[in-house]
Amino acid sequence: MPPNILLVRFSAMGDALLTTPLIRALRQRHPEARITVLTKAMFAPLFAHNPRVSTVIGWEPGTPLRALAAGLRAERFSHRLDLHGSLRSHALRLLVGGRWTGYPKHRAARTLLIRAKRNIYRDRRPVAERYFDAARSLEVTPDAGSLELFLSRGAIEQADRFLAERALGLRRQLVAVAPGASQFTKRWPPHHWIALVRQLVERDNDVVVVGGEAEREVAAEIAEVGGAGAASAAGTLDLPGTAALLRRARALVAGDTGAMHLATAVGTPVVALFGPTVEAFGFFPYHAKATVLQRELACRPCSKQGGPACPLKHHRCLQDLQPAEVLEALRKLPR
Predict the structure, then answer these.
(1) Confidence (pTM)
(2) Domain of residue 194, residue span
(3) Which of 118, 168, 120, 147 is nearest to 15 (CA)?
(4) 1, 3, 76, 175: most buried, per Cβ within 10 A?
(5) pLDDT at 318
(6) Contact between residue 43 and residue 62 where contact means Cβ atoms under 8 Å apart
(7) What is the pLDDT of residue 335?
């Protein structure tokens, strides 16, 4: 009987996208399998048009887990993969019952690296490949492919309409920038973004600033310096529309954020700016056309996911990365 597989990854956007190499491998190894993905409702569109996925369950935060668990129990899954490893996913495991498998999060090694700056990581694999440990009994291995995101015609039309209305990317190369991040210390300073956009437009590029509702104000401020050669899509397009917009871009400049992985999933080259986080954590661009810019500082890493303020009050990890370096990295990116 073909496997009936449940994959659970509630959030965040980048972490959810990093499950797609495993999903691809599962479908290739078990073409008749039923593959169900459970994620937060806001990230369900990342899988909605993925032909490798049989069913997508979008969980609304605040909805009781008991009701969700009751529905999952009725599905009689043969394999239950916890790709989150959080308190919520462990609670769900208890409520659903049955045998579950997970993946190594290396919390002790990560904590020692942050607090004592000692790197004892033996597992150098990216997180996308660590996920495969949860599916060990299904006999799958990573291929050489990257992340995947399948776009609907509606998403593509939404992005094309946005660009056409603003006459962006029609005659000049389009570059996307993503200034936002969930935590302050992961954000490149606004004055650097402003300088970068100004110079990109002066060098005959068009620029689109992407982000969510939380970035609407700063994105508008950054786009303003580009005049008619720049526009903000932050808070305007939905997640698939933003992905389609990134696919139209020559490249994306972003921090260690979901937008970086979103661009990778649609095949857009990336210049990634890493500050408080490091490669050992496993979240560098995965099998992508990418350049990572970072500073080798004694204080890095200072946290696992960034924080509200630099512990040393200087934020040099990102302050020291200059727009000129980003421009040079963009120039050298492979097509």
Answers:
(1) 0.97
(2) 153-332
(3) 147
(4) 175
(5) 98
(6) no
(7) 83
